Amino acid sequence: MDEFYRVIEDKIRRSGYDGPTDGEDIYNDICDQMEDKEEGVYVFMSKKTEDIFFEYKVEIFEDQFNLSYIDLHTPDKTFHVDFDS
């Protein structure tokens, strides 16, 4: 799993976002929001600070999920991280 967390962190850094990121925290946040959801496509929001929030697009399957993208919304800019390409 550590490799998966690093991939999340690396892709976020490459987007130009220089705020704090923790792949494990992001993964756990997504898992918490997915709990008890039916299969389908969802957009989850997570407020990180007073003026920063993350938006996750996730497709939930029976035994797994696909993280399509993360948009990191800051007061000045939105950073898009595409995990499907």
Strand content: 35-45%
Low-confidence stretches: none
Query: How many helix segments?
Result: 2
* pLDDT averaged over residues: 96
Question: Which outline best applies?
Answer: globular
Which secondary-structure class do the elements indicate?
A: alpha+beta
End-to-end CA span: 20 Å
SSE string, helix = H, strand = E? HHEEEE
Q: Strand order, biggest sheet?
A: 1-2-3-4
Q: Residue share in helices?
A: 25-40%
User: Which sheet architecture does the biggest sheet show?
Assistant: 4 strands, antiparallel
Roughly how many Å is the radius of gyration? 12 Å
Question: What is the total tally of β strands?
Answer: 4
Please, could you describe this protein's structure?
The two termini are about 20 Å apart. This protein has helices at about 1-15, 25-35; strands at about 40-45, 55-60, 65-75, 80. It has 2 helices and 4 strands. The radius of gyration is 12 Å and the shape is globular. It has a 4-stranded antiparallel sheet, covered by helices on one side. The longest helix is centred in the first third of the chain and has 13 residues, at about 1-15. The protein is an alpha+beta fold and about 80 residues long.
